[in-house]
Design a protein that fits this description.
CATH topology of the largest domain: Aspartate Aminotransferase, domain 2
Number of strands: 11
Number of domains: 2
CATH architecture of the largest domain: 3-Layer(aba) Sandwich
Strand content: 15-25%
Number of helices: 14
Distance between the termini: 24 Å
Bound molecules: pyridoxal-5'-phosphate
CATH class of the largest domain: Alpha Beta
Largest sheet: 7 strands, mixed
Strand order of the largest sheet: 1-7-6-5-4-2-3
Order of helices and strands: HHEHEHHEHEHEHEEHHHHEEHEEH
CATH superfamily of the largest domain: Type I PLP-dependent aspartate aminotransferase-like (Major domain)
Length: 345
């Protein structure tokens, strides 16, 4: 087994600059629960990045960020529309249903994305007591399939939500990868397009832990202080989350790390596309590469490199690149893949 694989951007370690920032924050005693200078400074940076009217709150993880963000704007009477592949729908152990207690409506995706056409049939029943009241459309940027919504696509969904007095939530666990891919700022691809609530991820982009829930305005954010505590996501030693976000913004590290991960995914795509027996199945727009390959080599390859099978029925697997993936990692992986392929034919 090699020491680096392609299973997820979660399996990579912590970026050295982030680790350094954590270490530097480990000095003396400071106020707890976000009253410290590290947090004040990080929140200022988030306002600079996302807009002066926005309100940001640090939490521990992405599931907590999504669930609490949504809990703050819906009640049990409501429904949340999301893609059938949404992390929210498939990978949060029904936390939204359990903790929010409302209905999720999974809608057929197109290349990992929601579309206005596919959402529209589910926006009905307003005022009907027999029907859960649609309140939020949740999209993931970049998507669970490593694709990226264009500005136009996000704007169209935001307009649809707002025309129906609904909100748009963006799961930005990999927002940085999407921004790099689109060549735009984090704000330009979120709040400027009408997003109401964003969960902005750091863990997949080199942090040890820590995500942020960001509201487009103070009014929307008004309950979150209480909900975060009630939802068990208020960190007492918040300085260690905030210090990581300071480092992420200070050196444009969010951009450098995401750009590198995306670049490595493109490199991986270009190399494996040349191999007989490998078919790239999704557009590579962020840091994920999806391929189909002969079934018999999957477990062989997994013995050396950890990665996940995405769709067993067609032998489709997912390979993710991280801030620390190197060209050498990719060459060695492609070598092993070529060898496995030639043993299969
Ligand atoms: C799209 C997406 N959203 C949110 C998350 C957050 O997950 P966690 O609760 O593991 O931090 C993930 C993690 O894999 C993800 O891929």
């Amino acid at each position: 087994m090699v020491d680096k694989g392609f299973a997820s951007d979660n399996i990579s370690g912590v970026h050295p600059q982030i680790l350094k920032a954590i270490n530097e924050a480990n000095m003396g005693h400071v106020d707890a629960y976000g009253e410290d200078q590290y947090t004040i400074s990080a929140l200022k940076k988030l306002k600079e990045a996302f807009g002066n009217d926005t309100e940001a709150f640090f939490v521990f993880n992405g599931t907590g960020a999504n669930v609490l963000a949504l809990a703050s704007i819906v009640s049990s009477l409501n429904s949340i529309i999301c893609s059938n592949l949404a992390h929210l729908n498939l990978d949060e152990c029904a936390a939204p249903e359990n903790f929010i207690g409302c209905k999720l409506i999974p809608v057929q995706n197109e290349a990992g994305k929601l579309t206005v056409k596919n959402i529209k049939p589910y926006i009905y029943g307003f005022g009907d007591p027999h029907h859960a009241q649609p309140k939020v459309i949740s999209i993931t940027q970049s998507t669970e399939l490593g694709t990226v919504y264009s500005d136009h696509e996000v704007k169209a969904i935001a307009d649809l939500a707002h025309d129906n007095q609904m909100f748009i939530h963006m799961d930005g666990a990999r927002l940085s990868n999407a921004a790099v891919s689109l060549g735009k700022s984090l704000k330009e691809i979120s709040f400027d397009l009408g997003v109401d609530i964003l969960t902005f991820g750091g863990t997949k982009n080199g942090l040890m832990f820590g995500e942020v829930v960001i509201f487009s305005n103070q009014d929307l954010a008004k309950n979150f202080h209480y909900l975060r505590k009630q939802g068990m996501q208020l960190s007492s030693k918040m300085r260690f989350i905030s210090a990581q976000y300071n480092a992420l913004f200070e050196h444009n590290l969010w951009y450098q790390s995401a750009r590198h991960a995306n670049k490595m995914a493109k490199l991986l795509e270009s190399k494996v596309s040349l191999l007989d027996g490998i078919n790239v199945t999704r557009k590579v727009q962020a840091n994920a590469v999806f391929v189909t390959l002969p079934g018999e080599i999957i477990s062989l390859l997994q013995k050396e490199y950890p990665f996940y099978i995405w769709d067993e029925s067609i032998n489709e697997v997912r390979w993710m690149c991280s801030f620390d993936t190197t060209e050498e990692d990719i060459s060695s992986f492609v070598n092993s893949l070529s060898k496995a392929l030639s043993s299969a034919y």
